[in-house]
Known about the structure:
Blueprint: H1 7-12, H2 17-21, H3 39-44, H4 57-67, E1 77-81, H5 88-104, H6 109-112, E2 121-127, H7 130-146, E3 163-164, E4 168-171, E5 175-181, E6 192-197, H8 206-212, H9 220-234, E7 240-245, H10 253-261, E8 267-270, H11 280-283, H12 293-298, H13 300-308, H14 323-328, E9 331-333, E10 339-341, E11 358-364, E12 372-379, E13 384-392, H15 402-414, E14 418-424, H16 430-438, E15 443-445
Amino acid sequence: SVDFTMLGSLLKAQPSDEAVVANESYSPDDPFERTPVELETFLYNPEYLNLSIRLSSPQLEFVESLSNIFAPTQYTEGVLMAGQGSGKDTCSILIGLRIMYLLQCLRSPQRYFGMDKNSFIDSINVAQNADIARNIYFMTLSNILRSSPLFDPSVNSDAIPVRITQQTVSFPKNVRLISGNSENESWQGYTPILVILDEIDAFKSEQELQRSHSLRSEGAEGVYNTAKALVQSRFPGLGKIVCLSWPRFKGSFIQRRFTNGKMEDRTFVSCKEGGTPFATWDFNPSKKKEDFDDFYASDPVLAKARYECDPPFARDAYIKDPLPILRAFDAEIDEVGQITWGGLKPIRDESGLEAGIKYFIHVDLGLRHSNAALCVAHQGLEHVVIDLLKVWSPEPDKDVDFASIENFILSLRDKGFRVVNVTYDNYQSVSSLQTLEKFGIPAKYKSIGRSS
C-alpha cells in the first residue's frame, strides 16, 4: 500500500490540474487522452484495480449500466433492492471509481460536457449518518484505492495520482469522490455527475420525521428529491442517481422506487428475470442462505426482510404476523403484499341489526385529512359482535359533516333499535355529545388509547 502522506512529492511529477484542464490542444473530434478499457479489464487487470474478487453477472451488469458515461443512451437512475451482504456497497464504490477513471481518460472532462474549464465534477455517496459514511463507505473506498496499481504511481508509471482527505478523494482534472450524509447538508453544494443514496431505507420517511419533529436529519424523500434536482441541473440527461437498500417495511421508499423504476425508460432496476428483487445469495453467489440460519432462527421476520427483501408492514412491528388482524377487518394480502378488500365476511350495515338487542356505538371523528368512522357492536354469548362499520370521507373541497353522523345514530334509534350508549373520541366531539344527550341518547367521551 502507498503512504499517502508522501503523495505531495508524487504529485509534483504529474501535470497540474489546471494545466490539464486548460489544455488548449483539446478538440471535440479527439476528446480522449487515453483509450478507456472495458469494464472487466478495469476491474481485474493487474495494471488497473487488480481486484481479487469476481463480480457476479447481475453485479457486473449493474456496475456497467450505471457507470458507462459514454454510452449512446444513458440511464439517469439506478435502483438496487437486494439483501444485506449482497455487495451493494462494493458495487456503488466501483461505479464511482469507474466514472472517475473514464473522466480521467478525457483530455478535459469539463470541455467534453460543455462546462467551464475550472469547474469541478463530483461523485457523491450519501449515507444515513456520518459514522456510516466514514467507517464503512470511505474506509472501503480508501482500501481499494491503496491496493490498486491504477492509482499508485510508485508501481505504475501511468498511474492516476489521488489525494485522500477526511471525506474527499481528489483526482487530477478537478474530479472528486465525496462522502456525505443526510445529517449534513454540505454535499448539496457540489457538482455531482453521480449521487449514490446508500441504504436509503435507513433514512427516516417524511411521515416519521413529522412524528419525531426531527430538525437534523432529512428524510428519504427529501434526500432523493434534492439529489435529483442537483444532478439534473448540473448534468441534464447524463447525471445519475443510484438508490441502494434492503427494504425495512412494505411500501417503503426503496420498494416504491423498485416498482416505479421498472416502468421508467431511463431507470435501470436490477432484478431477477421475473421482476422480483435479489436475495443476498442471488446477487452475491459467494453467500448461501444457510450462512444466515442463526438469524432466521432468532428473528425470521427481520431475516426475510434483510436477506430476501420480504419485509413486514412496519419497522419493529408489535404484531409480527398481520394477516389474522387484517382478516378481522375483512382485508387480505395479495400476491405482491398489498392490502386489499378480502370480502371474507358479509357487509355489515343496518340491515343486520335486530330489535331488542342492546347496541353500543363508538365514533372516531375525522374532519379534513382523515375519515370519520362509526362502529356498532353488542355483547354476544362469549364474545363481542361487530354489527356495523360506517365511514364518512372528506372531499377535496368539503369537510366531513358531523351532523350527518349524529343524524345516522338518531335514525337507528328512530327505527326501533336500542342504542344504550354512544362514545366519542375527544377530537372535536363536544358538540355531537351535547346533541345526542339532548335527544335522549346516553353519550360520553371515551379515549381509545394504548392503555385502554
